[in-house]
Each structure stands twice: as C-alpha cells, then as structure tokens.
C-alpha cells in the first residue's frame, strides 16, 4: 500500500519546492547567521522556511504530528503518541548554504509507528526533487516536470577500483587515518547535506556513507533513510543493528540518534563493517571517544 496518495504527494512537492526556491532567492538578497551551538549554525532563512513548512504540513495533515528543526517546542510531539510524524528540515547542509555552495537541501520525512516510511529531498540549486518510500518506489523530478522513476545503478566494485566513501569532515579528521590503514583503497569525498550524501549512495555514485558523531537528528534521517531502505540499502549501526527510531534510541531532548550510521549495499556492509569497527574502535580507545550506543528496543 502506497503511504501517500498521488494528490498529496503533488501538494507536498509543491510546498517543498516553493520553499527551496524561496531560499535561493532570499540568499541572493543577504541573510543573518547565528550559532545555535558549537559549530551548529542557523540563518534567518532557516527560521522563515521552518515556519512556512510547519504551517503548511499542519494544515495538510491536521491529525499528525509535525516536528521541525528550528521549533524546539515541536520536538515534544515525538513523545505525544502520534502514529504519524512529519520530520522537517528547512535547510539541511546549512554550512554549505551559508558559503554559497549548492550541496544543501530541503527535506521532509514521514515517520509512521517509529519507522521511516517516505521521504522528499529537494536540492534547490539544481531544482531537483528526489522522493518515494516503502511500497511506493523512488522517483525524481526536475523543475515542474512530471516525476520519473529514479534509476538505481549499483556500482560494480573490483579489487583495483577505489572504494568511494562519504564521510563528514569531523569524522574524517578523527578517524580518516585509521580507516585508510584498514581499507587502503578507500577514496573519501565530502558534500554538505546529510540527505544528499545518502542519495549519492542510492544513485550508486558512492559505495558507503559513514556517520559517527551522533549529532544527526530525526529531521535529518527520516526522509533520506526512507529512500535508502526503499533502494534496498543496508542502514545499520557499527554493530550491525538496524538504525532505530524508537524513543529509547533517540535523545529525548535533542531528538539525536544515539547510534553511529553506516549506509551501503548489503554485501559491502557485510564485508567491510568488521574492518571499520576495528579501525574506529582502536582510534576511539586511544582518544577516549565513544562512538556507539546499542539500540534499545
């Protein structure tokens, strides 16, 4: 059963695209930047779009919960026993947005009974929307054209081909050297938005995405992981457990995941995860940094 009707999907995409194009226009006119926390930035554009998206989704789905990144009070809805929760990130990849780079996105995800069911990731700089979900499929749409099925081409790895891994700058600084020692053919690359990183793996342009620092929140993961799961990718912790969205696996105040995240083709995850675990844990032991927390069901 498709989680979203074609009419509702069309309305959702219109809302997201309108906000994304507005972000592009507002950015050209200048904006204010403030720091929410250490290396965690927000602009007045994030705040404006947050209000618009929250209002639009509350109107469209009055019986569902709506959680948005910039409205701290909305986080309580995760604890209010809603069957369906809309998790919204007005600008994912804010640092790229601030510096005029195009690797940012507007993201919406549907969490149903604590499972990611559907997602929309819109890249305003390319005017490109990626969307879909479980028992629905994956699609892309450019501009206002009709959507088309998303081509999914798994990269065929060979012993001599580099292993393309997406990783965040902070994780690379901390663990990159150890990973290279464990996986000598690894080739790191970096883009801003969590959602666009996941889509690189979905589209077969990357082999793995590794995220270790446990700062990522529900509005970052729900949409992209819905698309990854629909594509048949493995989405697991370093211990090989599924990424969890149940309350005990999520920080109650920040709604951050307690697990590290590894995304890739199942056969690659099975082959490489033990080597990554050994490399990461050896570095963590030396530095005293904890990177993994078991999922509590």
Question: What would your notes on this structure say?
Answer:
- Helix 1 packs antiparallel against helix 2, helix 4 packs across helix 7 and helix 5 packs parallel to helix 6.
- The C terminus is likely disordered.
- The protein has 297 residues and is an alpha+beta fold.
- It has 2 domains: 144 residues, Fructose-1,6-Bisphosphatase, subunit A, domain 1 (Fructose-1,6-Bisphosphatase, Chain A, domain 1); 125 residues, 3-Layer(aba) Sandwich (D-Maltodextrin-Binding Protein, domain 2).
- It has 7 helices and 14 strands.
- Strands 3-4-5-6-7-8-9 form a 7-stranded mixed beta sheet, sandwiched between helices. A 5-stranded mixed beta sheet has the order 11-10-12-14-13, with helices on both faces. Strands 1-2 form a two-stranded antiparallel ribbon.
- 35% of the residues lie in helices and 25% in strands.
Discrete helix count: 7
Task: Identify the CATH architecture of the largest domain.
Answer: 2-Layer Sandwich
* Total beta strands: 14
CATH fold-type name of the largest domain: Fructose-1,6-Bisphosphatase, Chain A, domain 1
What is the 3D form? globular
Mean pLDDT: 89
End-to-end separation: 26 Å
CATH class of the largest domain: Alpha Beta
Largest sheet: 7 strands, mixed
Residue fraction in strands: 15-25%
Rg over alpha carbons: 18 Å
Report the helical percentage: 25-40%
Given the helix and strand composition, which structural class is it?
Answer: alpha+beta
